[in-house]
Amino acid sequence: MKRISDITKTLLTAATVFAGSQLSTAGNGVEIEHLGTNNTLVRVTADGKYLILPVQESNDEATVNVLVDGKLDRTLNVRLAKSKVDYTVPFDIEKYKGKNVLLNVVTSQSRATVREAKEDACWGNFCVSDTFNTENREKYRPAFHHTPLYGWMNDPNGMFYKDGVWHLYYQWNPFGSKWQNMTWGHSSSTDLVNWTHHDAAIEPDGLGTVFSGSSAIDSENSAGFGKDAVVAMYTSAGASQIQSLAWSNDNGASFNIYAGNPVLTLESEARDPNMFWNQDTKEWILVLAHALDHEMLIFTSPDMKKWTLQSAFGKGLGAQDGVWECPDLFELPVAGSDEKKWVLLSNLNPGGPFGGSATQYFVGDFDGKTFTPDLDAEGKVPTKWLDYGKDHYATVSFSDAPGGRRTVIGWMSNWQYAPEVPTMQYRSANTLPRELGLFKNSDGQIYASSAPSPELEAVRGSVFKSVSKVNVDTKGRRYAIPDICEITMNIDPLKSDSVTLELANNAGEKVVLTYDPATSRLSFDRKESGIVDFSQDFPAITVAPTYNDGKTLSLRIFVDRSSIEVFEKDGRFVMTNIVFPNSPYSYMSVKANGGKARVSNLKIYNINAQ
Ligand code: FRU
Question: Number of helices and strands (H, E) in the chain?
Answer without folding.
Answer: 2, 42
